[in-house]
């Protein structure tokens, strides 16, 4: 299969978990980075006017979770049983909820949106951290293997490590308050191919 991943340049966002899966599996793909100036002409060519888009032998697949689940099956990163897959889906949805609380802060920080980033951090991100991180910590403890499900490393870990890592690698106080989350992110980022990729990728905050 020939893979082409299209996402914005200048930000990791929802394109990065797919990249991490490709890198971990050692599967080649075209990383098609687009800039904001070119987006208006590209937008109408995408299935839903959004990115990421993954083209598989020329067929475009849109929506990030559809892309991740497809790649999980193709790259042997899907949990084994139907129940494990449903649990992974539920955890991913929960992490996505958290990312929705943190998203605007990082978009403002990167200059893609106007707003009071300090107020976003204080009033939205930190309360979300204290709501979501204890629950995610319990999932890690219950799995007992260093990852989020008892099935072991799966696609949800690449998504979660990226989204949780945005915060724990940005703020030392959060990392110190939730050491299990920090250790988890470091564990995923220390996988050999992922470690090499993270070391060489652009240092964007999100």
From TrEMBL:
Reactions catalysed, as given in the entry: RX + glutathione = an S-substituted glutathione + a halide anion + H(+)
Q: Which domain of life is it from?
A: Eukaryota
Give GO cellular component annotations, separated by semicolons: cytoplasm
| Sequence ranges assigned to domain GST N-terminal in this UniProt record | 1-79
Q: Which Pfam families match?
A: GST_C_3, GST_N
GO molecular function list: glutathione peroxidase activity; glutathione transferase activity
Tell me which Gene3D superfamilies the record gives: 1.20.1050.10, Glutaredoxin
Enzyme Commission identifier(s): 2.5.1.18
What sequence ranges are listed for the domain GST C-terminal?
81-206
Which protein is depicted? Answer: glutathione transferase
């Amino acid at each position: 299969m020939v893979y082409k991943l299209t996402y914005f340049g200048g930000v990791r966002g929802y394109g990065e978990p797919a990249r991490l899966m490709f890198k971990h599996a050692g599967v080649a793909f075209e990383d098609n980075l687009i800039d904001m100036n070119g987006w208006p002409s590209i937008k109408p060519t995408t299935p839903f006017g959004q990115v990421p888009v993954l083209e598989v032998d020329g067929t475009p697949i849109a929506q990030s979770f559809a892309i991740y689940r497809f790649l999980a099956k193709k790259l042997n990163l899907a949990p084994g049983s139907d129940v494990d897959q449903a649990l992974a889906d539920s955890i991913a949805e929960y992490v996505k909820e958290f990312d929705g609380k943190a998203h605007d802060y990082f978009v403002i920080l990167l200059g893609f949106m106007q707003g009071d980033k300090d107020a976003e951090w204080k009033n939205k991100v930190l309360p979300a951290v204290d709501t979501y991180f204890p629950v995610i910590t319990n999932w890690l403890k219950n799995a007992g293997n260093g990852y989020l499900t008892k099935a072991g490393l799966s696609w949800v870990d690449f998504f979660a490590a990226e989204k949780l890592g945005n915060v724990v690698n940005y703020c030392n106080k959060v990392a110190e308050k939730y050491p299990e989350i920090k250790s988890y992110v470091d564990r995923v980022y220390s996988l050999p191919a992922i470690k090499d990729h993270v070391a060489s990728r652009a240092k964007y905050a999100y």
